[in-house]
Structures are given as structure tokens and as C-alpha cells.
Amino acid sequence: MVYREVTRVEIKEVLRQWVGGAGCKRIAARVGLDVKTVRRYVHAAQALGLTRVSGEFALCDELLAAVLASLRTQAGRPRGEAWERCQAHRDRTKQLLSQGLRLSKLRKLRLRQGVQVPYATLHRFAVAELGFGRTAASVPIADCAPGEELQVDTGWMGYLEPDALGKRRRFRAWIFTAVYSRHRFVWPCLHETTATAIQASEQAWQFFGGVLRVLLPDNTKAIVVLADPLDARINPTFSSMPWRVAS
User: Fold this and answer.
1) Among residues 162, 193, 219, 227, which one has the fewest Cβ atoms lying within 10 Å of its Cβ?
2) pTM
3) Among the residues of the chain, which ranges form H helices?
């Protein structure tokens, strides 16, 4: 089975915030990880002796390497009897899937034969062992250097507290994510305009401690006038600001 690659940078950032007093939920929101993943990192480090009073100086290469090794040994998921049943019919399952048979239909055929396998287990088996659902091989992408690239996107965030008339206004946010460190800065706004895009960008530079070399915007109309792979046009007001925009 294929697992998401875990890096030392990711582990160190989680543990750095944890020894600084942040809770797992807050860390998960800041770094863009699932809270269960954050807890796994913290528990693995605690098992190796890390405490909040240890401070950041305890996050040495030796500790991070030990945490990473511990996480990798935990990655294996125990297989049950249902998985063994899938293994017993592996060749036939592969043949039927190659013929275009749906996985739900295949499970019904197995039930008629007296073979009971939960759909979730069958799906995991088909994906992990038979490449089910894969349309193309993954293309590895080289990591950029620190301070090199910053991605910006927008999205609805939720509703404000009711006003005097009892109405709740929906608000958006500009979301900046550093490609290398995955640090994230969120700037709420009521309207997605070029003015708020510039204001949010200026606040992002303060948060990141400087202007990153390349800004990668999503196709928001406030920044990108025309989205085109060869001849994209950036809003002239935004592009006139003293930073570089990659289209």
C-alpha cells in the first residue's frame, strides 16, 4: 500500500508548535494536516522522551530521525480475514476489473458465491494491490527552495455573528500557503476584489517576514483577467505591485 511521504520539515514544524504550547487541533489548522496525524507525531515524540518543557533545542536531527523511523514502523496496517479472502480471489478480481466490471457488482458476485467482504476492504485491496482507479502514474515534483514560492487561493469561510437585524453575512478569505514549509496565512474579507487581494498580500508579506520570490495565484478574477496556459493576463493593478506574479 502507498502512504503519503512524511518529511522531517513537517514533523519538526508540528513538534516546534507543540513544545511552544499549541494544541493539536490548532497545529492541524495551521499546517494543513489532519488532527489525528498531528497527534501521531506528538505521541511518537513523547514516547522518545520529548516534553513541552524540553523546548525547541530538543528538536535535534537525532530526535527527528527517531520519530520518523517510529512513524514508518507504525505505518503498516494489520490485515484481517476479509483481506485474506480478497487475496484468495486476486487473479479473478483483477480479470473482472480489467473487463470493466464495477466494484459494487463484483462484491455482489462474491456474496452469491458465499464470500463476504466489506466494500471498504474490497476497495482498499483493489486500489493497493491491483491499481484500481489509477488513471496515470504519479509525477514526482522537485521541492522548491525556502522562500521561493507562495500559492494564493480564495474560499468561503463561514458566517459572521448576526447583526442588529439578525442577519448573518457570509465572508471569504485569501489563503496563502508557502510551498516549501506549508506555513499558511489566512486573511478574511467580505469581497473578493483586487483591492482586498493587494491588502491581503501586503499582510502576508508581514506574516512570512518578507516577499517570496514567486506568487502562484489561482484563477481568481481579482488577479487573473484571462486564464490561459500560454498567454495568461494578470490584472494590471495587481501586477504593478512590487512583486513577481507567475501565470
Assistant:
1) 162
2) 0.45
3) 8-19, 24-31, 35-47, 61-74, 81-88, 90-98, 103-112, 119-130, 194-208, 236-239
